[in-house]
Amino acid sequence: MDVKGIVPYKPDNSQTSFFLCGKAGKVDAVELKCLLISRGVKVDNEIYRRFGKSFRINPNALTCNSMKLPDGTNVQLTDVEFHLRHLRQALSWDNLKLMRYVSQLTTPFRLKILEDKPSLFHDKDFVCHVSFHDKSDFYKQKTSSGLPFIGNAVLQGCDFVSFQCLWHCEYAAMGAPCQYCFSGADFEARARKEKPQPAAVAPSDVAEIVYYAVKNDNVNSVQITGGSTFSGEHEHRHIIRYLRAIATCGIKLTGEILLYITPPGNFAYIDEYFSLGANRIACSIEVWDIERANVITPGKMQFTTRERHLNALTYIAEKFGKDKAFSNFIIGLESLETLKEGATWLAERGIIPSASVWIPMGRPVMGSMAAPDIDYFRRVKNMLADLYLRYNLSPAGGCGLNVCIEKDIFRITKD
User: Fold this and answer.
1) pTM
2) Can you tell me the mean pLDDT for 155-176?
């Protein structure tokens, strides 16, 4: 599949390193991606005015903007101003609460126009020109039942349509959300105000969204995610209906279906998911450090348990083979030492340790919104690169997902 952006989009593979002022110095594309995700960017309004009509760039935080670095690396573009405005509206955060963290919510990155091109700056210094994906009408669409695409699905990178929360998180509604999770905070807030939780998205709506994305936006892969559930049977009913709807919607996916699940008590459900078209299944641990996990992911630790996560992942790897199971880690929430311990445990068993960079803006974790420094991200990158090579692991992700770095690490490692 051709990746497109500024007309025509041609990655300049000669630029694989970038220079930032201060102690960061020379960084590669993965390291720059980590910094951009964890700090966010101030986007000049002129960027939206000039490029919004021709490319996939929108001030609405729900459109999951991304940009491409010159070497083709796909990066989540979080406009700090619009992101915080959305959180204040969605989660009812008042200015007093935000004031506690104001010193941690600054970013040195800015996107503005230079030489008639969208250009990234670090403080006042030019870093590189960037590009955007081709314009899409995806977020203007509604399904035949009236469900808006926006707020229910996003386009990620050049080849994925992702459903971020097809059913609500029961752990969050019970007051035990993962601290970093924006959706979990919303479910918890609804429950506290005694508001009804949103209904699960209908399988027919999912099928229509997938069909549209494949036909109109060069999508070839699907990411299915829901909230954690107390009942494996309840979640199983949701998932098999979604997989069957996608399988019969009239298009053939040439990529992958990534399925994120709550580890079920009955592993026969996992067998069925693979038989219905899932290519890889995640039972995500997110934080390996037990003490931190108990605070950051209380529902998963209390209700699902670490043991059930590891048992399910091991079952998948042993029955379906290497690379079929994966577990996400939120990069930036624990020390390199415990992260390496967990990633190594998985890799040794043929389970892919995948990596999403923590977006701290608006959701404090353990009382902090302070992102890690470049040295931490660099060491994480090198550690995961070593594991992917040593155990011959090939992460999913096509051209690379917005906040995940495993495919980018794999790509530069193979190169």
Assistant:
1) 0.91
2) 94
